[in-house]
Amino acid sequence: MRERLPTVGRLAGTLAAGAFAIWLSYQLSPGDRSLYTLMGLYAIVAIGLSLLIGFAGQISLGQGAFYALGAYTAGILTVGVDPDDRLVNPDAGIDPALAVLAAPVLTGLVAAVIGVPLLRLRGHYLAFATLALHLILLAVIFAQSRFTGGQDPGLAVIEPLEVFGWQITGVTGGTARHTAIVWGLVLVTLLLALNLVGSRPGRALQAIATSERTAAAAGVDVSAYKLRLFVLSAGLAGLAGALYVFMLQFLSPDAFGVFLSIQFVVMVAVGGLGSVYGAVAGAVAITWLEHELRELGTRPSLLGFDLPDQAPQVFSVGVFAVILIVVILFFPRGLLPALGDGLRRLRARV
Amino acid sequence: MRELLQLVVVGLSTGSAYALVGIGMVLIFRTTGIINFAQGSFAVLGGLFMVELVDGLPRLLAGALSVLVVGFIGSLVGFVAVGFRRRTTPLASLIITLGIALLIASLNLLAFGDRPHTYPTFFERAWDIGGVLVQPQYVLVAGVTALAALLLTLGLQKTIAGQALVACADSRRAAELVGIDVRAVAVIAFAVSAGLCALGWVLLTPVDPVNYDSDVRIAISGFAAAAFGGLASIRLAYLGGLTLGVAQQLVVGYADEIPGLGQQGRQYELAAALVIMLVLIAWRSRHEVHE
Asked: With contacts defined as CB-CB under 8 Å, which chain A residues touch B107?
């Protein structure tokens, strides 16, 4: 909410950080790179969600569903929609690049359909409705295993992603180039979001964020703007999901549990509601934290205590939850803005 | 026809347990403005405690103890969810209750493990009513639920604490002006609500086993029930719960006959109920004037 149209200095800083992020893609070992790619994909989702929560004041607990929908749309279109045809014809699907483009379109459409009635209601109906959407989607993925592969055997998508003969992912999945493209997209999304905040629709959104009534009185079509934001955030999640497929080359509903949707909200909450830079920082921090906690849980013992089998899950979810509660209680505007405030106060004192 | 009646009986009973969760949600939302996602966790805790306690204690005592303990946990959750600063918005409170739900789920996983828990029903045999076999447990759930809802309504009307809750629901600011401690009211609302959720699953667990991760399913069903009445009416939330329960059972029972679903129909149990609820909510939104 606080960011204005980027000044020249800020723009230069953002571009430099983006260039560094892209450069880093080529420097990391393959193991670190997959975590780094995940951070980038989640950052794209978090930027969209941050705009939605910050300006429309509505939580979506279904960003994970849109992410999954994007992933399965791209995956199924790539291997071919008809399961019978898939087995005998290796060219049953469409071009992976087209599949990636189709994913955000479809997720955006779904968001538009459920958004029209739900965004009209007050009281966080959208939160539960999107969570319901997530559960419904999971049920469909499990049940329609003929198309999705279900939990077992899952859906293998081994076709490499290629744009005009320019190979992005290889036969072994994610490459440095793929990671670089993901972070390039993070930069583009970031700049688009900043531009949006500074433009005429952005000012309308800021008016809505301050007071819906006042905005409506000033002639802003509140529900239309909210709906557009919701569709935009869903589309971004769909795009990230589609890019995820070609990194892992395998889809299973286990990767898209309800926890994922909650994580996206946490990334935004930690980074600061409505802050676009914060969303990226939140995505990077939370993805890293979740990964580290899970790693910690896989150790046989910690501080002299033997860890049970469920430790990875208990650590990554339970400890995560405690951090979430503390951050929201004491830094309701987000950890990053709070840090900025603290620094400013410190500087004023010196 | 017989099959239909059977499904309706089961649906009414699981539906009344959802209704309790929904009623609790309405109570909390009206008094504090918070949507409490941890409702499902209260229900799961109630069921799991009951399974543990029923081994060594008389059933009535075990049940009462479970409800009381969960009620106490609920009051703690309420205390935290309201926030320590005035700045804690309803949005922040919703995220806090989400965090609490995650925390309780992972603690449950640690303490009880990843498997469905249940305990034997109170009754030996099913009743045969005009050819329809009825598990007495279902009747018990429905009956106790109706009684609890009635007592809650009476309590809101007749007791001082109840009137304070109603005052808060009408206007929090006005309630504060006449000297009602809003935080205390929130704690009471959360405690009562947690007790109701626990009660539902203390009774339902023998026929519907709980696992550590059942909380999402329960919370969302409870919200759907509450949303039926626009998050405002206890009576409509009750009706919403029953509708949801019956709809769910009908989908389970007749899934095979719905074209396109086939054998996998059963997996749509929750999904189908949620779709129905989404449509109902969307239909309601026609009346809502944008503010």
From this structure: 314, 318
- So where are chain B's domains? 2-284
Record: contact A262-B98, CB cut-off 8 A: yes
Domain membership flag for residue A264? no
- CA quadruple B180, B182, B186, B192: dihedral, nearest 10: 0
**Model pLDDT for residues A66-86, shown as the tens digit of each residue:** 999 999 998 888 877 777 666
Q: Does B87 touch chain A (CB under 8 A)?
A: yes
pLDDT digits (tens, 9 = 90+) for A277-334: 888 998 998 899 888 888 887 777 667 666 677 777 778 888 888 888 888 888 777 7
ipTM over 0.85: no
The DSSP secondary structure of B182-207, one letter per residue, reads HHHHHHHHHHHHHHHHHHHHHHHTTT
Comparing CB atoms, the residue among B96, B106, B231 nearest residue A325 is B96
A82: left (phi over 0), alpha (psi -120 to 50) or beta: beta
Tell me whether residues B220 and A127 touch, CB distance under 8 A.
Answer: no
pLDDT of residue B24: 92
CA distance to partner chain B, nearest, from residue A229 (Å): 17
Query: Could you give the residue ranges of the DSSP H alpha helices within chain B?
Result: 2-32, 39-53, 59-82, 90-112, 136-158, 160-170, 172-177, 182-204, 215-228, 234-254, 269-284
CATH class of residue range B2-284: mainly alpha
Burial of A260 (0-12, 13-18, 19+ CB in 10 A): middle
B35: distance to nearest CA of chain A, Å?
8
How many Å lie between the alpha carbon of A172 and the closest alpha carbon of chain B?
34
Question: If we measure between CA atoms, which residue out of B68, B88, B91 comes closest to residue B80?
Answer: B88
Q: Calculate how close chain A gets to B237, using CA atoms only, in Å.
A: 15
Indicate the residue of A128, A212, A318 with minimum beta-carbon distance to B220: A128
Task: Dig out the tokens for B26 from the structure.
Answer: 């309405």
Q: Closest-CA residue in chain B for A116?
A: B282
Measured between beta carbons, the chain A residues lying within 8 angstroms of B29 are 123
Question: How many domains is chain A built from?
Answer: 1
Closest to B79 measured CA to CA, from B190, B228, B177, B214: B190
Q: How far is CA A162 from the centre of its chain?
A: 23
Q: Which domain holds residue A95?
A: 8-256
pLDDT bucket at B289, cuts 50 / 70 / 90: very low
Q: Is residue A314 domain-resident?
A: no
Between CA A253 and CA A148 the distance in angstroms is: 9
The pTM of the whole model exceeds 0.90: no
Residues 206-265 of B with CB under 8 A from A: 216-217, 220, 223-224, 227, 231, 261, 264-265
Neighbours of B206 (CB within 10 A): 22
